[in-house]
Amino acid sequence: MTTTASVVAFDQVSKAYDAVRAVDALTLALRPGQTVALLGPNGAGKSTTLDLLLGLKKPDSGTVRLFGTSPRDAIVAGRVGAMLQSGGLMDEVTVAELVRLACDLHPKPYRPSEVLSRAGIEQIADRKVNKLSGGQAQRVRFALATAGDSDLIVLDEPTTGMDVTTRQAFWATMREQADQGRTVLFATHYLEEADAVADRVLVLHRGRLLADGTAAEIKAKAGARRISFDLAGRVDEAALRDLPFLTSLTVSGRTVRIQSTDADATVHALYGLGVYPRNLEVAGLGLEQAFVAITTAEEAKSK
């Protein structure tokens, strides 16, 4: 792995808290212009990974490099902008004053008016920070992360508290940042955002990298398909659970939803039961279902 060509490079990085290994021999590299989603269940190591990347924590072993140098040096040079879940906002100052301070501190600042406009917070520029709603505070944190011309933007659960319209505008701005050659790394619980926005998805579980690829590749890795249909008569759930290659089954009224690792064989066996499904649909997993399938399979292996 050539760290000098990478925006971010983790090389066999581990971090433990007592007996809990939060990050376990993590190796990955991010390139310029990528929009990367970091996914994982609670306790997967996402926050620790971001803390290591930003130099807020030091690894027990392995190395973290940003632009071929240490996280601290990259941040001091103004090459990294970060938006964390909480903190970072001063009380009893106005939004405009806080943004102006962030611009003054950045080695390559933008004009405060430009930062306020990009974040969509001109209307609340004169409001005290401690009087903001959750969604407004998130937009202010975004403004602070983009107060200057940084090459890497790191976002931890960036759209928490934002309404749908604001979230759409936020991600449109993020796509513009990536189009300009910046790398955007974001951790999120909104898997539909990762599916729609990211051109690369990283799935963490127990501090290890389970999957790395496009959203389509992650879905294919899950190795299952969705089958849904309606039944006109009584639903024999016990018989349906005996279908081959079944990985999950849910019944809602007369609507049946199945996940199968061999949809053709499952549907063939379904007709063999003498069942005549109506409105039959067979489709690939969404990113959320694929994420659940991958992490559930990993949990089963560890038991």
From TrEMBL:
Stored Gene3D superfamilies: P-loop containing nucleotide triphosphate hydrolases
GO annotation, cellular component aspect: plasma membrane
GO molecular function: ATP binding; ATP hydrolysis activity
SMART domains named among the record's database cross-references: AAA
Primary localization: membrane
Membrane topology reported for the UniProt record: Peripheral membrane protein
GO biological process, one term: response to antibiotic
Keyword vocabulary terms for this entry: Antibiotic resistance, ATP-binding, Nucleotide-binding, Transport
Residue ranges occupied by any ABC transporter domain in the UniProt entry: 8-231
UniProt subcellular location: Cell membrane
Domain of life: Bacteria
Pfam families noted in UniProt: ABC_tran
Cross-referenced PANTHER family: ABC TRANSPORTER ATP-BINDING PROTEIN
Name of the protein in question: Putative ABC transporter ATP-binding protein YvfR
